[in-house]
Amino acid sequence: MSGPWRCLMMAALLLPGSAWALCSSVATTPAAFGTVNSTLVRTTVQTASTTNSGLQCTGSLLSLLTSNDHFYATITPASGGLVGPTGDVINYTLYADNSVNYPITRGVAFDFARNGIIDLLGLLSGPTPKAVPIYLRTQIGSNVAAGLYQETLSVAWSWNYCSGIGIGAICLGRDIGNGSQSLTVSLTVSNDCQITTPNISFASAPVVAGFATVNQSVSLSCTKGSSYTVGLDDGQNVSGGRRRMKSSANNYLAYDIFKSAGVVRWGSLGAARRASSDADVNPGNGTGTGSQVFNYNAKVYTDQATPPAASYTDSVILDVQF
Does 199 reside within a domain? Predict the structure, then answer.
């Protein structure tokens, strides 16, 4: 074989039409759970993700990754969670995909090349840079105060993979590198209350003086550490400072709702409201799980004329202000 022919064959081996994939350590995108009320934080898994956990790659890979290729991510600190303004903690778990199949253990290197995760992301295909996402899910049971909860993670990436494929799947070069980036995770907890409000029934009577006083209570379970007030509006038919029930024939039966066992009207403005510190059971700030009880009594005014026989109704709104 002549010398020029040998040179041509060598050139063919060195120009295989392979493409190169290159990765780099880049700044992350924060992961935010958004604003969630305290009840949902305690009872329901919340999800979030970052579209960029600190590793970005571009290029083209002509075959799937092999057992010799690795994309390790080590997330620290080894223990922790989202910490709020009063020191409460919301625990959460990190995942390599948008499922619960691949949890990431803090402080332990997780290989994204395994289980086909990198391949499924298409991280090394095409010229457009692509980043590795990480997914997060809160753990239920966190009884916490309202406020901003945050944690800053360190994501250390280390990669070693075949970045160029030659004739016969011969690897012509490997991309090897590492880098560490900070990742901020946040969740804002808002105040919330779970409210139990039984209906008020005066039953029936032939005259207004025959209606008995109704003694009942409302129960509230509000966000841990929250100070709040509870108000009752005037209903749909108020007149002369008195609540009124109404019949289908547009007749009225005046009544009212009073604080505890007293004669002080329970209203919706200023001092007419009731503070959490004024609860009849468990007074003080909310506990998140325990109930605070507010007693009341409801009476039909006896200084009014007895209206025609009918069914009389009204609707009163209870509101909570923090």
Answer: yes
CA distances from 169 to 10, 35, 134, 152, 164 (A): 17, 50, 31, 41, 9
Helix (H) / strand (E) element for 171: namely strand 171-190
Torsion of CA 61, 183, 143, 93, to 10 degrees: 30
CA 253, chain centre distance (Å):
46
Say which residue the tokens 């290029």 belong to. Answer: 59
Q: Are residues 142 and 254 in the same domain?
A: no
Q: Does residue 9 lie in a domain region? A: no
Flag whether 28 is in a domain: yes
This prediction's pTM: 0.86
40-64 as b/e, with b when 16 or more CB fall inside 10 Å? Answer: ebbeeebebbbebbbbbbbbebbee
Do 55 and 123 fall into the same domain? yes
Q: What is the pLDDT of residues 106-151, one digit of tens each?
A: 999 999 988 778 777 777 666 788 899 999 999 999 999 999 999 9
Report which of 223, 185, 8 is spatially closest to residue 91, judged by C-alpha positions: 185
Q: What angle do CA 3, 4, 5 make, to 5 degrees?
A: 90
| End position of a domain, from candidates 190, 205, 235 | 190
Residue type, 180: S
Q: What average pLDDT does this structure show over 153-172?
A: 79
Are residue 197 and residue 186 in the same domain, yes or no? no
